[in-house]
């Protein structure tokens, strides 16, 4: 993080000052005098800074200064490709400028900067800056170097069959993973940097000719409206730009799989790649796309249809099962088959709590266990959750505090919520389970239905970048059902985006045609 | 959705949630009943001791399984002990029910009564009161099976059969298996209120306990049929008359017919029917009302103690003929009983006429009582023996004694 403690404007970064000044006066440009520039930059990187100012002479005549973060740039390459050639260079005249130097250095990436702001940005970004005596331009080199881990298998979205590559924290690696899969010049990656302090690079990726252009415009508008100090994870961006940030239902899909991003780009969606996090954001999404897994397309389609329906069923179960149990056992006993009721009655006989309280205790305990298991180190986590589950399941039942049917219900609900392929989509059902349980416990099935109605109304009003959240159910576009209620074979999927870029308009998906409302 | 609607909705949602939150703490405001607070009634029995008032008995599931006491207070160990019987008196059913509730510390929950047993004493009072109550009071199930019992209904309910969870369960299973007439509360009401104005109910009997066994441990079984005319009990019939009745009602499933071939009086051939299907075809010709009853039976030979080998087709034909005669006789006697003796339309003749000849039916509605006994019932019985069993010749006899043709 850039630090600048100067005068009364304490704790305010240089960039923001520059930004503020932009309205009244232009950002200070570099002066032709080397000393002035160095003084100005030294003032920015004064205390507690690890910026190196290396002064040398080109051909023992022209004074030059290289300014760089030794930790952020490749110093070995800097010495070899820049410092060495420059010292050894024998220019024709001593009136050398930045452009001329860029021409003689054996380095592919170099940029000329003219203002102090640009200069400091490039230094903070890890790009070495070369200042010359007598030149009002500086030169930066793309020699930044940062530590990043290797491409590994995504842990949160494992598949049995399918690519094992996952995004990493490095944006460059992620872009290369995408480009490797989509070898098409229409894959556009617009760069935008967000965050006053972090200056995080965000890449908006989309397939030109496939995506509805108004969506791109809208995303850019929302992205540029973000005013924040830092972007550390994709959620920071998601909360800024989603249509209804207060909804528990995620309106953007976060994934660490490049193949998922590619598939969505091909379907006319856009993706946001954010530097420093392996999670990419994809939108516009619908509720049904949140319940789909990449594996649906990597397995035989009949199997995928089965699994998909299983998932829908268990999504509903994860939301409603405890509530249904509470409602039916406390208000509608006649609905239970007789033999089952007798078994439940026998199991519940010694239980001191009402069914609602019992369900709340168990659900909260389960959520706590789950959260504990997630936060603990991998090796301990599994053990703790198993022991916890055993203790709650076994001991509580035998102690007569919780009935065995309730344990079954809670366990089934737990399994059901694990079946949801997107963690963020599962959060909504985990959260909404509790209010519905309260409604079921006080009003019975009517309460449960009221809760459901409120949720459905909410979902009907929800939009993700202009696309209704429940589409293609409401509004109905039955042509897209083949990828929602079942998964037709890949070859039968007419949902292909037959190149709009070729001038053929038919075949573009409705999902991309919905214009943004905001 | 506009922002205003969203805001309004979220306000409603917040209000509902906070109200239910408050309700959770104010437990007195709920009308919930936990399962722990229920006395689940599995079967109810209706008696009328000495013909006065009603004695309502309820078989209640006891989840504690600590061995339910018997209603008579006898303290012998019981067979399974998962149910107890409680009963209460009253001048009518509703009164008896409210008195029963006062005797119990839990809410009596009738929603799971699988069986209704009407004691013979109560059946003689007529079914109207019971039917009205069972179909009006919201908790009863319309698809509970109805039985009449020879002994007081309370005794039937007090049985704790070792085979089933409860005697209610046993009665339900017997109803499903069609061991007698399968009649639910709704069927009963429909058949009494329908054009036939009659009902046939299975009759339960408790067998005497085996020696050394608990007298409560026996399973009530279906023996005979109770006949009702316009909700009034008229007669009990037993085999073979009841078999004929069930055949005409198209309700017979599990039975074995034995026939004795004439030329060989030493043994019998037993036939187990796989299907028995009866169709009634009404006909009005020249003002003469008639019904053609067609009984189609198919069955397998399950026992052969004669010397016939049964391999020859003519032998099987002979047996078929005997079986046909036997069935015709049984069914004809049932028809005679219904038409001539009791003059009650148990078999649904009226419904058939109403369906096929609505005009004539409506015109003669008032005269039905006099028409019915004079309807000519033509009976045709077709039987077919499908299989002669695993063995073709009789087993356990020397080969030379077997008659091969």
Helix content of chain A: 40-55%
How much of the polypeptide of chain A forms β-strand, as a percent range? Answer: 5-15%
Q: Mean pLDDT of chain A, rounded to whole units?
A: 82
Biggest beta sheet attributes of chain B: 9 strands, mixed
Structural class of chain B: alpha/beta
Radius of gyration of chain A: 29 Å
Mean pLDDT of chain B: 84
Number of helices of chain A: 18
Please tell me what the overall shape of chain B is: globular
Overall geometry of chain A comes to elongated
Number of separate strands of chain A: 12
Number of domains of chain B: 2
Structural class by secondary-structure content of chain A = alpha+beta
* SSE run of chain B: HEEEHEEHHEHHHEEEHEEEHHHHE
What is the quaternary state of this protein? heterodimer
Percent of residues in helices of chain B: 25-40%
Output the number of helix runs of chain B. Answer: 12
Organism (chain B): Paenibacillus plantiphilus
Protein name (chain B): Spore germination protein A3
Family (chain B): Belongs to the GerABKC lipoprotein family.
Main location (chain B): membrane
In short:
Chain A is 46% helix and 12% strand.
Would you spell out the secondary-structure blueprint of this structure?
The complex is a heterodimer of chains A (518) and B (405).
Chain A: H1 14-24, H2 34-44, E1 51-58, E2 62-69, H3 75-88, H4 98-104, E3 110-113, H5 116-124, E4 129-132, E5 138-141, H6 171-181, E6 187-194, E7 200-207, H7 213-224, H8 234-241, E8 253-255, H9 258-266, E9 270-274, E10 280-283, H10 287-290, H11 301-331, H12 338-348, H13 355-375, H14 378-398, H15 404-418, H16 423-443, H17 445-461, E11 463-464, E12 467-468, H18 510-513
Antiparallel strand pairs in A: 1-2, 2-4, 3-5, 4-5, 6-7, 7-9, 8-10, 9-10, 11-12
Chain B: H1 3-25, E1 38-47, E2 54-61, E3 83-90, H2 93-102, E4 107-109, E5 115-119, H3 120-123, H4 128-136, E6 145-149, H5 153-158, H6 167-176, H7 185-193, E7 198-205, E8 221-229, E9 232-237, H8 241-248, E10 257-259, E11 269-285, E12 288-304, H9 313-341, H10 349-356, H11 358-363, H12 368-371, E13 376-387
Parallel strand pairs in B: 1-4, 1-5, 5-6, 6-7, 12-13
Antiparallel strand pairs in B: 1-2, 2-3, 7-8, 8-9, 10-11, 11-12
């Amino acid at each position: 993080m850039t630090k600048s403690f100067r005068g009364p404007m304490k704790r305010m970064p240089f960039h923001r000052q520059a930004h503020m000044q932009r309205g009244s006066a232009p950002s200070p440009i570099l002066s032709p005098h080397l000393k002035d520039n160095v003084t100005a930059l030294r003032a920015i990187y004064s205390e507690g800074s690890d910026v190196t100012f290396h002064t040398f002479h080109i051909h023992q005549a022209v004074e030059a200064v290289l300014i760089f973060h030794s930790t952020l740039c490749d110093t070995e390459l800097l010495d070899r490709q820049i410092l060495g050639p420059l010292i050894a260079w024998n220019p024709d005249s001593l009136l050398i400028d930045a452009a001329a130097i860029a021409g003689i250095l054996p380095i592919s990436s170099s940029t000329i900067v003219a203002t102090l702001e640009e200069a400091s940005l490039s230094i903070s970004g890890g790009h070495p800056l070369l200042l010359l005596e007598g030149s009002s331009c500086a030169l930066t080199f793309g020699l930044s170097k940062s530590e990043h881990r290797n491409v590994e298998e995504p842990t949160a979205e494992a598949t049995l069959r399918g690519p094992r590559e996952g995004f990493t924290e490095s944006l460059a690696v992620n872009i290369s993973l995408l480009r490797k899969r989509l070898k098409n010049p229409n894959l556009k990656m617009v760069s935008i940097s967000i965050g006053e302090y972090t200056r995080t690079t965000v890449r908006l990726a989309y397939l030109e000719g496939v995506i509805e252009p108004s969506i791109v415009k809208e995303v850019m508008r929302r992205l540029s409206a973000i005013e924040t100090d830092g972007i550390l994870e994709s959620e920071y961006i998601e909360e800024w730009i989603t249509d209804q940030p207060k909804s528990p239902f995620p309106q953007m899909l976060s994934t660490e799989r490049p193949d998922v991003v590619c598939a969505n780009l091909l379907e006319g969606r856009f993706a946001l790649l954010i530097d420093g996090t392996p999670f990419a954001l994809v939108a516009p999404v619908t509720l049904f796309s949140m319940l789909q897994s990449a594996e649906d397309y990597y397995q035989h389609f009949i199997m995928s249809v089965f699994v998909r329906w299983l998932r829908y069923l268990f999504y509903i179960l994860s939301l409603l099962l405890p509530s249904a149990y509470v409602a039916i056992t406390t208000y509608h006993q006649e609905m239970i088959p007789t033999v089952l009721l007798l078994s439940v009655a026998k199991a519940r006989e010694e239980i001191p709590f009402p069914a609602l309280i019992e369900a709340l205790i168990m659900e909260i305990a389960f959520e706590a266990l789950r959260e504990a298991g997630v936060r603990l180190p991998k090796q301990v986590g599994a053990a703790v959750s198993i022991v916890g589950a055993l203790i709650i399941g076994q001991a509580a039942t035998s102690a007569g505090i919780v009935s065995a049917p309730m344990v079954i219900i809670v366990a089934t609900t737990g399994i059901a919520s694990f079946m949801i392929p997107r963690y963020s989509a599962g959060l909504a059902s985990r959260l909404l389970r509790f209010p519905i349980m309260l409604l079921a416990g006080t009003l019975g099935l009517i309460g449960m239905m009221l809760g459901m109605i409120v949720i459905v109304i909410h979902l009907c009003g929800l939009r993700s970048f202009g696309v209704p959240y429940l589409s293609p159910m409401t509004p109905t576009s039955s042509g897209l059902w083949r990828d929602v209620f079942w998964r037709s074979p890949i070859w039968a999927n007419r949902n292909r985006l037959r190149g709009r870029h070729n001038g053929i308009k038919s075949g573009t998906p409705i999902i991309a045609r919905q214009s943004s409302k905001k | 959705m506009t922002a205003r609607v969203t805001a309004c909705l979220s306000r409603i949602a917040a209000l509902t949630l906070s109200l239910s939150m408050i309700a959770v703490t104010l437990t007195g405001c709920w009308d919930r009943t936990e399962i722990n607070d229920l006395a689940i009634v599995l079967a109810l029995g209706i008696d009328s001791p000495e013909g006065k008032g009603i004695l309502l008995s309820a078989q209640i599931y006891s989840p504690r399984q600590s061995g339910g006491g018997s209603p008579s207070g006898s303290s012998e160990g019981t067979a399974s002990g998962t149910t107890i019987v409680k009963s209460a008196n009253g001048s009518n059913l509703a009164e008896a029910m409210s008195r029963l509730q006062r005797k119990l510390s839990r809410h009596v929950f009738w929603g799971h009564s699988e069986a209704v047993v009407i004691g013979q004493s109560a059946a003689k009072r007529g079914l109207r009161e019971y039917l009205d109550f069972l179909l009006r009071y919201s908790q009863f199930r319309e698809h509970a099976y109805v039985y009449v019992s020879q002994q007081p209904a309370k005794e039937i309910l007090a049985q704790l059969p070792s085979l089933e969870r409860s005697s209610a369960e046993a009665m339900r299973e017997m109803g499903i298996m069609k061991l007698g007439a399968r009649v639910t509360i709704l069927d009963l009401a429909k058949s009494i209120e329908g054009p036939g104005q009659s009902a046939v109910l299975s009759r339960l009997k408790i067998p005497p306990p085996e020696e050394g066994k608990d007298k409560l441990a026996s399973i009530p079984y279906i023996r005979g049929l109770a006949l009702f005319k316009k909700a009034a009990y008229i007669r009990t019939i037993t085999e073979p008359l009841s078999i004929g009745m069930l055949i005409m009602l198209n309700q017979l499933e599990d039975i074995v017919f034995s026939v004795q071939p004439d030329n060989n009086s030493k043994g019998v051939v037993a036939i187990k029917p796989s299907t028995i299907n009866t169709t009634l075809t009404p006909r009005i010709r020249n003002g003469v009302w008639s019904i053609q009853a067609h009984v189609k039976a198919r069955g397998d030979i399950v026992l052969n103690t004669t010397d016939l080998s049964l391999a020859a087709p003519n032998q099987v034909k002979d047996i078929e003929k005997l079986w046909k005669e036997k069935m015709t006789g049984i069914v004809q006697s049932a028809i005679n009983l219904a038409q001539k003796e009791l003059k009650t339309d148990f078999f649904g003749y009226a419904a058939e006429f109403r369906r096929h000849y609505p005009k004539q039916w409506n015109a003669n509605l008032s005269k039905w009582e006099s028409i019915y006994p004079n309807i000519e019932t033509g009976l045709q019985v077709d039987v077919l023996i499908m299989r002669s069993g695993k063995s073709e010749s009789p087993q356990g006899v020397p080969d030379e004694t077997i008659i091969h043709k």
